[in-house]
Specification:
The structure is a single chain. By secondary structure, the chain is of the alpha/beta class. It is built from four helices and four strands, in the order H-E-H-E-E-H-E-H. A four-stranded parallel β-sheet has the order 3-2-1-4. Strand 1, helix 2 and strand 2 (about 70-75) form a beta-alpha-beta unit. Keywords: Membrane, Transmembrane, Transmembrane helix.
């Protein structure tokens, strides 16, 4: 499930790959930042403190460029309590190849694992 500010709500429906793609096609943000740290362990070795520091930097960047949307794959237990709705978090696999092919994807933050590198090299 995708979460914005209130991660405790269970009324947000799961975002299927098809719905995700349609939203990107019809309502594209001018800037996308893709953040993913692995297929097997979605958050890599990150701690809650690491994620809080990372989200603080995302908020700083949102202050400079409010048009960006951060697509983040992380374990829900690591999320800070309050964060911008422009930081969209899921614990489900992201359509990484699709996101990487979009012209408005400006930055890809990864742990540089085999799957991520393969997708970057062979698109």
């Amino acid at each position: 499930m995708w979460h914005g500010r209130d991660i405790s709500t269970s009324t947000i429906p799961p975002l299927t790959p098809l719905l995700f793609t349609l939203l990107l096609l019809f309502f594209p943000p001018s800037c996308i930042v893709l953040v993913t740290f692995g297929t097997v362990k979605p958050s890599g070795e990150l701690t809650k403190e690491d994620v809080s520091a990372m989200f603080e930097q995302f908020h700083i960047q949102l202050g400079k460029n409010g048009d960006c949307v951060f697509k983040v794959r992380l374990e829900q237990s690591l999320l800070p309590e309050n964060f911008s709705e422009k930081i969209q978090v899921t614990d489900q696999p992201l359509p990484q190849q699709k996101l990487l092919t979009l012209q408005n994807t400006k930055l890809f933050i990864s742990h540089c694992g085999q799957h991520s590198l393969t997708e970057v090299c062979f698109i």
